[in-house]
Amino acid sequence: MSGANRIPGKGRLTPARTARFTLDGRCLTALEGDTVASAMLANGLHLAGRSFKYHRPRGILTAGPEEPNALLDISRDSARKQPNVRATVQEVFDGMKVETQNRWPSLSFDVGVVNDFFSAFFAAGFYYKTFMWPKAAWHTVYEPFIRRAAGLGVAPKEEDPDHYANRYAHCDVLVVGGGAAGLAAALAAAEAGAKVILCDEQPEMGGALHYDTGAVIDGHNGYDWAQVTVARLAAMPNVRVMSRTTAFGYYNHNFVALAERVTDHVAKPGKTSPRERLWQVRARKVILATGSIERHMVFANNDRPGIMLASAGRTYLNHFGVAVGAKVGVYTAHDSAYEAAFDLKKAGVTIASIVDCREKPGDKVLSEAKALGIEVLTGHSVVDTAGRLRIKSMSVKRNGGGASARKIEVDALLISAGWTPSVHLFSQSRGKLKFDAARDRFLPDVYAQESQCVGTCNGTDALQDVLDEAYAAGRDMAVAVGAKGAVNAALIGANAFEWTGGMIGAAEGAGRDTTVKAFIDFQHDVCAKDIRLAVREGMHSIEHIKRFTTNGMASDQGKLSNMHGLAIAAEMLGKEIPQVGLTTFRAPYTPVTFGTLINHSRGELFDPTRKTPMHAYEASKGAEFEDVGNWKRAWYYPRPGEDMHAAVNRECKTARETAGVFNASTLGKIEVVGPDAAQFLNLMYTNAWDTLKPGKCRYGIMTRDDGFIYDDGVVGRIAEDRFHVTTTTGGAPRVLNHMEDYLQTEFPHLKVWLTSATEQWAVIAVQGPKARDIIAPFVDGIDISNDAFPHMSVAEGKFCGVPTRLFRVSFTGELGFEVNVPADFGPDVFKAIWERAESLGACLYGTETMHVLRAEKGYIIVGQDTDGTLTPDDAGLAWAVSKKKTDFVGIRGLKRPDLIRQGRKQLVGLLTKDANEVLEEGGQIVADPNQPKPMTMLGHVTSSYWSENLGRSIAFAMVANGRARLGETLYVPMKDKTIAVEVTDMVFFDKEGGRIHG
Fold this sequence. Notes:
Number of strands: 52
Strand content: 25-35%
Structural class: alpha+beta
Low-confidence stretches: none
Largest sheet: 7 strands, mixed
Radius of gyration: 36 Å
Distance between the termini: 92 Å
Mean pLDDT: 94
């Protein structure tokens, strides 16, 4: 048996197809297609969990993703465990293990319920007042206790053996929501010829048609029409239909993130199948058909197991074939709940009474209730319920007081306060809402992106109006993207009843005192009295009220509670609801697993190692490697018997006396192309680029808005409309992002295209007096003589017979060339260069030697010699800031008084008094080593090396008013000694600079 509460002939599941699972060790049988919630209800189980703060018994409240109570631990084995899974979403599969959470020792007997008896001490905001004293108790008592109490489930301890996938997709029209509105919109757009993606979070499309048996579309039952339409769409080549796929985030430029549950419902997933897949969709147009979420009624003890939304009761009956009780009560302020009573009554379930807090419900539903023999109590409210682990009765009282409450026995209570449009994704898109006072709801108003809301999320309620609006939106958006296909006639639909009514805020049974527990936020145990307390405590902003009470801060993000909390706060403040405001809807719409978000970025791919094309060849030559960002770079090349220092000393001497060959492929490279390329670079860099002639290079400094150095590099002008921009190794991604950000937001009028070319070019630097001799035999089509190809030149030609961009640049102060060739040819070209260089007595050198050689010449490294607070002038690079340009990024920042004041820290050179003493990088610098503590720190050492070429140590440092201190003696206090240093300029080798022009 799949459950005693199955009603023969009801639902859409196949009785012969069963699945067995365990719940807290108890074996249960479900039908394929059941959710854990529907399977539990079929087996007579309403108790699903315990509340977070009070540990009150909680049951299944909804049938969808808004579920706040039934959060369970789902597992296949010890490694495949996931806490806080919504029972209303998780499909049952054979062999699944389900455990309830937040209880001890058992769900039915939880010692944590003692908190409920002491609830007066846990009022809203108690944690802001309780954990303040004694101060010493925070680390030893409060913080450990809070950390243990935080959360409902237990995170898995074993590594996740499943794998996750990621896909990118582009479409003309993305339709979010597979209900009547979404299907109509997708159908119209697809018929017109647009490329359409349709996604919905449920296993089957249909939305509210899952439960609404009274809906008829084109002469068919609404759900049947939905399945036929889905099959029709799936057969169209221009449509992708995605079930079990939640649109959880709506970002800039119609970028929508989808989470697809691929195998969460499968008993034995294929080894190559991902568990979940992240879709990153860029759509030209987006149609939001996200529907509405039913609200609960707010009254005393409205959280007992067996109390659930009326639409949930209909869903379990009409789709899953499960009766939620044998004697069911209904409490409502909206006509829709009546239809739940009608469906249950027709299925043979006893309806104890319909309690309606309105005096005048819809005439048609009243007539139908009378015809079915259902008692309707209008103008009444449920003021309390009874039952410990499941509701046993409800107490009903006439509004306004009077006679004592009438007790009505029930084993389930369906509730409905009306419907809240699901505007979460619209709000994430930065759209603005308006308040519909007639229906107490917020609706889409001002659109920020190329999107359209349709159906009940847009405030359109009647089925025919929904179909017309959605069909028109799909057609119009398809036409807007250039589709020209013929669209068929509009759809015809009708509801069985026209719904009226609705309320937000506390019902009469919620009380205005400080003891009644009328729950608004079920997961965080927030009651109506807590909202009132927050206002009395001085919280007048809804955002402050939210944080004081934690209303809407649970994993359901207040899908059920926000409007009720807002209405109660507005009532207490004596303001209209729009004046109080609305909390911010943030992504994700529903919880998304870390696995989905991370997908491939785990293990070795979490922080991928990047290797240059020449890595293997360098390794074969004995290179030791270091990590530079994600890159593996040759650090030094030790010969037998050499340690690092000996190898670096040899490389430094050889590079200056003969030549050195260096793999510079990791330098960032960005192709800047377009008729406005020079103008764009003028705006991005401090110096001028329109005066740079093709075939020439220039060193450039990039600053942030605040005027501080962001990156630097050499830029070569290949043609009038093309620049080859180099960046620091670690700066390439952020510089490209920085450029794209400004190009798209500040300078969109410029005709410029940016392309990352870092991995497209292999770069071999040849530096030293014999550099020209080394490369000359391989160069074709370029005159590399000193006169024809001076320092800071660039030319295109052939090198070893392959295309090259040859730069005459140097980061050593020696005669230097940088050979750029397509990455695939890098290893062969590098090998050819090295074999010739070796024959001439040159050496291979790594990053450590590169650092020493550049420091000898006074060249800085951004990120090592700068710390985000240095301006070009501070770094001794004021010459690189154009005095003629009227605008560039950072120009206003550089004019701030603090950035031009006297006494700022400036980069200078340091020479230790003892030439053999090598300073430690990061060492602090003082003027008086005998000054009492706290000593005045003047700056710190940024770079420090032993220079074999100079026979002594050298260093750079940031020192307050540094250039004015040239010749002064300062001190670097260390743990065991104090080192005296002389402040010098930053050029230690070849001060005249003649070698670079050799």
